């Protein structure tokens, strides 16, 4: 019984390390998003850190238009990054789940 418990604890610790490694790797996964007309381009990591914003000069003449572009494009980029982030972390967590009787509903 204790051997099983120690094995599960070891597997959980290993999974925790894999999750941390995945989080670090997601800092290097870049998500690109652009407005529908290409006037605004945003790059962020899968951990949702903004890396660059490129703004077409035509947007600099209208503050409200630029703000609208930023809101729409940033939200789309964050949504994509969140999807990638959650999928990657869920895959690692699922892989590391120990075989606990009655808990197979999580697999």
Give the end-to-end Cα distance, rounded to a whole number of Å.
23 Å
- Helix percent reads 40-55%
Number of helical regions = 2
Class by alpha and beta content: alpha+beta
CATH homologous superfamily caption: Nucleoid-associated protein YbaB-like domain
Q: Which fold does the CATH topology refer to? A: Ybab, Chain: A
- Please identify, by name, the CATH architecture: 2-Layer Sandwich
Poorly predicted spans: none
Structural Rg: 20 Å
Listing every helix as H and every strand as E from the N terminus to the C terminus, the arrangement reads HEEEH
How many structural domains are formed by the residues?
Answer: 1
Beta-strand portion reads 15-25%
Whole-number average pLDDT?
86
- CATH class type: Alpha Beta
Shape: rod-shaped
Number of strands: 3
Strand order of the largest sheet: 1-2-3
The biggest sheet amounts to: 3 strands, antiparallel
Pfam family, one: YbaB_DNA_bd
Protein name: Nucleoid-associated protein F6U93_01445
Family: Belongs to the YbaB/EbfC family.
Subunit structure: Homodimer.
Can you offer a commentary on this structure?
Binds to DNA and alters its conformation. May be involved in regulation of gene expression, nucleoid organization and DNA protection. Belongs to the YbaB/EbfC family. This is Nucleoid-associated protein F6U93_01445. Strands 1-2-3 form a three-stranded antiparallel sheet, with helices on one face. The mean pLDDT is 86. The longest helix has 33 residues. The protein has one domain: 2-Layer Sandwich (Ybab, Chain: A). The protein is built from two helices and three strands; from the N terminus they run H-E-E-E-H. It is α+β, with helices and mostly antiparallel strands and 107 residues long. Strand 2 and strand 3 form a beta hairpin.
């Amino acid at each position: 019984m204790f051997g099983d418990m120690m094995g599960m604890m070891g597997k959980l610790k290993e999974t925790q390390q894999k999750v941390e490694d995945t989080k670090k790797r997601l800092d290097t996964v870049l998500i690109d998003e652009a407005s529908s007309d290409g006037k605004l381009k945003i790059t962020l990591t899968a951990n949702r850190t903004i890396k660059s914003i490129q703004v077409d000069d035509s947007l600099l003449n209208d503050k409200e238009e630029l703000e609208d572009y930023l809101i729409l494009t940033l939200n789309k980029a964050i949504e994509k990054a969140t999807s990638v982030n959650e999928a990657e972390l869920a895959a690692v967590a699922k892989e590391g789940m120990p075989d606990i009787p009655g808990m197979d509903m999580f697999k």
